[in-house]
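=== Discrete structure encoding ===
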Amino acid sequence: MMKPTGEIVPCEFRLTPGRLAALACTSVIVLTGCGSGDDSETRKPTANAGLIPVTQACDGLFDEAIAKEARKPNGPSKVYPVKTDPTSHTAKALREEPARRGAPEHLCTLTDKADGAELLAITVAWVPHSPPSARSVHYTTTTGPQNAGSLLVTCGTDGGSGTESGGGRSLEFNMRDYFTLSDHSHAKLLIASAKKVTSQLNCREDPEYPNPKDVAPPPDPRLR
């Protein structure tokens, strides 16, 4: 995982044929004929997973403004959610993680169809470094769908098998985005996800979350 620098860092990426297929799909109806993309990164929906509106995705993290971005220019209005554990289960798993860098926990994964190409994913994992400049929260944006943004949150915890001596570790929230949402929407989704998780982790000090518009201003509507 990338150590946050506080700067907007260009990130070169090369679309594989599977990625091109994901980006070429323009609607849920058309998507039924698209390839499945990179299966190594896509968590499969359960057998009873069905289409839901984008505004209901990720346990309500998508507000109407983000959903509107996801639908432009030809994005789907409905998506398939991949089954993930409730936030309470994720928090429990994080409390039990060993002090070293933990395996990512999946908070939200959306696909274009059952067993289809990934559209968006948000994960969280413990990392052994802290936000720069003694801040408790630091957002970093990059360019490219495979690493669309990250949020580093200090959360020292007391007790439990996963606590380091001194509690010197942080949570890193990462996003992949094939909707191609704006940086502002990435910040909103990551901050909202982090708030849900840290509210159940009993951090020794409450993280000071920034306003998303302060770290990534909303896009100019005239340019969209």
